[in-house]
Amino acid sequence: MATLISDTPDTTAPASPVPGKSRRQRQGKFIWLAYVVLISLAMVYIFPFLINLATSFKTEPDAASDPLSLFPATWSTLAYEKLFLNSDFPLWFGNSVVVTVLVTCGRVFFDLLAGYALARVPFRGRSVIFAGVVAVMAVPGVVLLIPKFLVINQLGLYDSYAGMIIPLMADAAGVFIMKNFFESIPASVEEQARIDGAGTFRTFWSVVLPMCMPAVMTIVILSFQGSWNELSHFIVAAQSPELTTLTKGVAQLSSGQLSAGTQYPLKLAAAAIMTVPVAIVFFIFQKKIMNSTAGALKE
Amino acid sequence: MNTLTRSTHSSGTRGSGTRGNHNATGWLFTAPVLIILGLFLVLPVIMAAWVSISDWTGRGSPFAAGTQFVGAKNFEAVISGGGLAERDFGTALRNNLYYVVLVVPLQTIASLFLAVLVNSRVLKGKGFFRTAFYFPSVTSSVAITVLWLFLFSATGAVNKFLSLLGITGPNWFQEPAGIMHLLAQSVGIDSPPPAMESGTFLGVSWWDWLSGPSVAMSAFILMAIFTTSGTFMLLFIAALQNLQGELEEAAMLDGAGVWQRFWYVTLPMLRPTLFTVITLGLIGSWQVFDQIYTGTEGGPAKTTVTPAYLSFSTAFNNQQWGQGAAIAFLLFAIIIVFTVIQRVLLRESDSVPRRKRMNPKPSRGRSLWPR
Predict the structure, then answer these.
(1) Least CB–CB distance from B129: residue in A42, A175, A272
(2) Which class is domain B95-143+217-356?
(3) With a CB-CB cutoff of 8 Å, which residues 12-71 of chain B face chain A?
(4) Quick check: ipTM above 0.95?
(5) Model pTM?
(6) What's the CATH fold of domain A82-298?
(7) Rounded to whole angstroms, how far apart are CA atoms B131 and A276?
(8) Which element (helix H / strand E) includes A63?
(9) pLDDT tens column, B312-370
(10) Are strands B200-201 and B204-205 parallel, antiparallel or unpaired?
């Protein structure tokens, strides 16, 4: 490890008033300490997920007697068999996929349109709309649980896919992100297209959109995560077992509403599977996800 | 607000001949978002406002003839009724207050600490550490809660680990005792002073207000720090990378140590991000719902009931729709009050360092991470 560190260029050392060597040594010591702290912290963050995975392959007595071990005494896939063959779990999974895909498509399209108009089209009422979008972003979600139910019920959408999907199809934060991204693209490119005779939609579709793919990916990732992990909206939007999504199903399994008892391997297997899709998306688009905060904040 | 609307002039220099065209296009493009947000965010608030001052029982439309206007009765029942509704609201408020008071500072410190460590220039394997710390933030609160219930169960991993150190862990999610009460007990105060027993606020005795978070709630507090520190770490890293390090180098030339550099140079420049993180933390930690619904449903002994969960269960489980809506509005008011207080406090202490700031474009005080 020490050799690794000494290889990195230390730009500050030559100009330092302190003799180069001692500064380098001090920094080396500091870095070494930082590694120790970082690695132990990383263990704390990763270990629970490893326990989760390991326990899902344990038998129930094994899970209770040796909860720390990462290697089951006897490997058992009983939890997974139960989930897939003897429960509504596949149905929940399917519902989550349907809802997530439709919500994500809707959000990308609608947020794009609105973000573009707010950033580029000088129409009357634009600043009022934008102020409204920002105000809506400030409304805390859980406060809307009862209100949302009231409206969904009133509109006759209760207990239907429409009621679960349509309310999630636009989000103020996404519009905000899109507007910011559009503003970061020089307007001159579009002006050029417009001079060449392209209409607003044409300019949007064939000139602006291709340049915005990074932003679109950000929205895709955020809405995928958001709708896959959404719980409270599905609780108030539907009640029939056929419309249960993964989050709602697993939450009810966990709180004992489905009288499952303390079947930790079963519950943890369910938790592990519902984490897999977001984990895959996360590892594929890691860089993008990590940088989207940075990029958006930087303007 | 001016920073947010500032950019609207960017393309307003076009000729007025296309004005009408622009108006049509603009409204057409924003229409879907406006309709959805209007129908499912604005209209609901109006409807809930009516329900909170009505005696609607959950049957039929709240606008139908049978529903009566009852004035502030629902609000009164919750904040001064003297009954169960008031005591429940007081308890929920206490539970969540301790949650906020502990989670917000701890997650801010933890995320800043992680960011500074990970952002260190000579560090190898930055990507690995960032991934490790951020991963809990992308998983669903339901999955994490299920995992937490196992880790903190009586025979779970945490207690097993504690037993290796010779400590007998509590039965976390079944233990209603507050940690302040436990501390008081450990120094020999078993029963409350009579004055604190008799006086009450919102139906909860002063002794119970001072209980601290219950052991069960403490497990949720640890979970909140575990799941949110990664997100906020990214915000801090972004801000740290914006600082370019020039000023830090200058400070280093002046002979400032690591700690001095952080305290006098880096931290003041991180103020806008600090503001964002604390605001988002405050808003988020008043909205505890998923964990409670999945994990404890308010137990043990109502010590993990939060206003958000109470509003839900009052309406959906007890069919007290008016009271449920009233609690939701009170929660909304609480969140706004806290955010405004924090904004005012930070702005005042902000006035001097702002001038010293090197970065001409401080990051906007707004995150792109919806919860």
Answers:
(1) A42
(2) mainly alpha
(3) 12, 14, 19, 21-30, 32-34, 36-37, 39-45, 47-48, 51, 61-62
(4) no
(5) 0.84
(6) MetI-like fold (1.10.3720)
(7) 15
(8) helix A60-65
(9) 999 999 888 889 999 999 999 998 888 888 778 776 554 444 444 444 443 443 333 33
(10) antiparallel
